[in-house]
Amino acid sequence: MKKSILTIAFALVAIIAGAQTGLKKVYDETINPMEQIDKAVAAAKSSSHEKYVICQVGGNWCPWCLRFADFISKDSDITKVVSDNFIYIHVNYNPRRSGGDEQLKAAKALMQRLGNPQRFGFPVFVVLNQDGKVIHIQDSGFLEEGQGYDKAKVLRFFSSWTPKAVEQK
Questions:
Q1: Strand 134-139 and strand 148-149: pairing?
Q2: Which residue from 9, 49, 102, 139 puts its CA 20 to 30 A from 15's CA?
């Protein structure tokens, strides 16, 4: 009995791992995330119409991060809202000790710059205005539905944080 339970458990782990590897890895682990953010802010500032920056903070190690990236890339309504209003970047967060003290310092500095969003888990979304100031941090848990994301909730989040929505008086 124990042997069959272990066999089933290992089979489930293999299936889940296989499903996760089928998702596209969207975080570039070779670039400096601080420079990535600076470039995105500059792009938002120089855009022909006002845009904000959305940082999807996480990593290729995070199945929910990859699920979200996959989810929004396959929905034309969400893609339009994002492309019309934001510079959208995937900011790699790597707090692993294996990277040494410099890696830990860089990870801490990144989180401080983004308003310490790691307290919400991953992915977490940080909205920056054209000056690079944090104007909102979104806990992705509020966008989830079952083992995925809810379109209406995701659209509401993005639509609520467009420059036009924020600057309404």
A1: unpaired
A2: 139
